[in-house]
Amino acid sequence: MIGFTHYLILSTILFGIGMYGVLSKRNAVAVLMSVEIMLNAVNINFVAISRFINSEPGVGQLFAIFVIVVAAAEVAVGLALIITIYKQKKSVNLDDFDLLKW
Amino acid sequence: MSLNDAVFFLLAVITAGSALGVITSRNIVYSALLLVVTFLGVAGLYFQMNAGFIGLVQILIYGGAISVLIIFAIMLVMDVEPHRTNPPSPRLPRRLGGIYLSILLVITMGAAIWFTHWPLAVGTTGADEMAVLADLMLGKYVVAFEIAAVLLLVAIVGAIILAKGADDK
């Protein structure tokens, strides 16, 4: 019988996959995509808790909506940053983004 | 195994498999397309949890808007051959560290989740969930709702200024 723990474990696996992508990928767009996977994992947790745990109904789903709003804002600003840096450096490799390093 | 369980396992395999494909593919266009599959799989999980509104929001915002935005950005910044656009880090310690930390997280969190006794609700939640959501959004959490709106506006303005450049009129 599929229950609460299965959803949480699937969400943990997705979070781990996203974390590996953030730590090991060098393309800035790929890192943003991994961050999106991690945010999706968090959203699965929110919705599962709202569905299975006896609490105020709907609050988990509401927080999932707020997470989606912040993720949309994050991806818009992040991609604008990447395009701006690409115009200056002609690269999307994170190892080349060392303007703030001294 | 009931039909519900079979659907869950199917969605779980699709979602986790395509997420793995996102981070293992060496062509970033394939990564972006697999990311759309991941988003749709997560939307299916929401539908299975009786969260239809969130599922639709997921399809519209993630499957539609965010994936199109990501693919646009990829097309704007792709300058080498497609199969070399998304390589893993050339440094082996960094990759091994990433694998180690991720597996450690999954094992410890998975064990903690599995052995915890959760205070599960007995019944299902109410049927008219969108009315509940709207009530919360414009009632108790109206300040957070307005701040989210302002955040989106600021993000749009900031993205335009960043991508266009503030000084070239």
Automatic annotation (TrEMBL), chain A:
Catalyses which reaction(s): a quinone + NADH + 5 H(+)(in) = a quinol + NAD(+) + 4 H(+)(out)
The enzyme's E.C. designation: 7.1.1.-
GO CC, alphabetical: NADH dehydrogenase complex; plasma membrane
Membrane topology, record value: Multi-pass membrane protein
Locations listed in the record: Cell membrane; Membrane
Transmembrane segments: 6-23, 30-53, 59-86
Main location: membrane
EC main group: translocase
Keywords, ordered alphabetically: Cell membrane, Membrane, NAD, Quinone, Translocase, Transmembrane, Transmembrane helix, Transport, Ubiquinone
GO biological process, one term: ATP synthesis coupled electron transport
Keyword Membrane set for record: yes
GO molecular function annotations of the record: NADH dehydrogenase (quinone) (non-electrogenic) activity; quinone binding
Pfam families: Oxidored_q2 (PF00420)
Membership in a protein family: Belongs to the complex I subunit 4L family.
Protein's job: NDH-1 shuttles electrons from NADH, via FMN and iron-sulfur (Fe-S) centers, to quinones in the respiratory chain. The immediate electron acceptor for the enzyme in this species is believed to be a menaquinone. Couples the redox reaction to proton translocation (for every two electrons transferred, four hydrogen ions are translocated across the cytoplasmic membrane), and thus conserves the redox energy in a proton gradient.
NCBIfam families in the record: PRK05715.1-2, PRK05715.1-3, PRK05715.1-4, PRK05715.1-5
Subunit structure, interactors included: NDH-1 is composed of 14 different subunits. Subunits NuoA, H, J, K, L, M, N constitute the membrane sector of the complex.
Descriptive protein name: NADH-quinone oxidoreductase subunit K
Organism whose genome encodes this protein: Syntrophomonas zehnderi OL-4
TrEMBL record, chain B:
Key word Cell membrane present: yes
Main location as per UniProt: membrane
Source organism, top-level taxon: Bacteria
Class of this enzyme: translocase
Reactions that this protein is recorded to catalyse: a quinone + NADH + 5 H(+)(in) = a quinol + NAD(+) + 4 H(+)(out)
GO MF annotation list: NADH dehydrogenase (ubiquinone) activity; quinone binding
Pfam name, any one: Oxidored_q3
InterPro entries: NADH_UbQ/plastoQ_OxRdtase_su6 (IPR001457), Nuo/plastoQ_OxRdtase_6_NuoJ (IPR042106)
TM stretches of this protein: 6-23, 28-47, 53-78, 99-121, 141-163
CC annotations in GO: plasma membrane
Protein name: NADH-quinone oxidoreductase subunit J
Organism: Syntrophomonas zehnderi OL-4
